[in-house]
Design a protein that fits this description.
The chain is an alpha+beta fold. The protein is 32% helix and 17% strand. It contains five helices and nine strands. The longest helix has 28 residues. It binds zinc ion.
Length: 269
């Protein structure tokens, strides 16, 4: 074997090694996830779920804040004879929860909803059975015009407070069925209608963004077509405005579907 052959052999070994390294590296790079761009699920009947990068942290925050509140309430009603170390232990646990809450990164949430005065917001329905569309002002029975936005989901799907809110009132009516009104920290007023189950709240109660307030149902005039009928008044009164852009922002998707192809079949509520 000549020196040239040996050199060529070494070079081809180096090239082979480089090729192996390249082959190992390139597929890894090629399978890097694409930047998150929302697309409608393609499978028939696939659930439509809001961007979990938005929802999960909000639900976690609500859970921690509720637990912290419960501990504070427990401390407040402690029997005076309770040993001091019990009080201190409860306080320490509450401080730990507060630290966890402070450590949650919710900074990415505000940008999408800053136009609505909402820093921490969540889409109100856990899972849709059809993509919602802009049905504001669509004709409804009795010559009415739709004063909100419908989101179709199965009965029993959790409904959540869109932002940190105070419960204004719970009602039952022929049109709305079981309903709940919230006043958000932003000053906006929300009306949720057709609930199957309304969780036990009283006017004045605090609910946190992402906290469950009830479940989707078909009460009122939504019989057979379970959905959330949501109304939104940014001024906190009965000057209802189109909640569709807010819902889009909360859903966290980048494409906006205005097509009725995804819309609900019912035109009753
Ligand atoms: Zn409706």
């Amino acid at each position: 074997m000549t020196t040239f052959d040996r050199l060529a052999g070494r070079i081809s070994l180096v090239l082979l090694a480089a090729a192996i390294l390249w082959a190992a590296a390139v597929p890894a790079a090629a399978t890097e996830p694409e930047p998150a761009v929302w697309r409608a699920p393609e499978a028939a009947g696939a659930p439509f779920v809001a961007d979990r990068a938005r929802t999960d942290v909000v639900i976690r925050r609500a859970d921690l804040m509720r637990r912290s509140d419960s501990l504070a309430e427990a401390v407040a009603v402690l029997d005076p004879a309770t040993p001091e170390f019990t009080r201190q232990a409860l306080e320490a646990e509450r401080m730990a929860l507060q630290a966890l809450i402070a450590s949650l990164d919710v900074s990415h949430l505000a940008e999408a909803t800053e136009d609505y005065g909402i820093d921490v917001g969540i889409f109100p329905v856990d899972e849709l059975r059809k993509m919602f569309y802009n049905d504001w002002r669509e004709p409804r029975s009795g010559g009415r015009r739709h004063a909100g936005n419908d989101t179709l989901a199965h009965t029993g799907v959790p409904l959540r407070a869109i932002e940190d809110s105070t419960v204004e009132r719970l009602t039952t009516s022929a049109l709305g069925g079981r309903t709940i009104y919230l006043i958000g920290k932003s000053g906006a007023r929300y009306y949720y209608a057709h609930l199957d189950e309304v969780f036990t709240f009283e006017p004045g109660d605090t609910v946190y963004a992402g906290e469950q307030i009830g479940t989707v149902g078909d009460t009122g005039n939504a019989r057979g077509a379970p959905h959330l009928h949501l109304q939104w008044s940014p001024t906190g009164d009965s000057n209802w405005e189109n909640p569709y852009p807010l819902l889009v922002a909360l859903f966290g998707r980048t494409e906006v579907y205005s097509s009725k192809a995804f819309g609900p079949p019912n035109a009753r509520a």
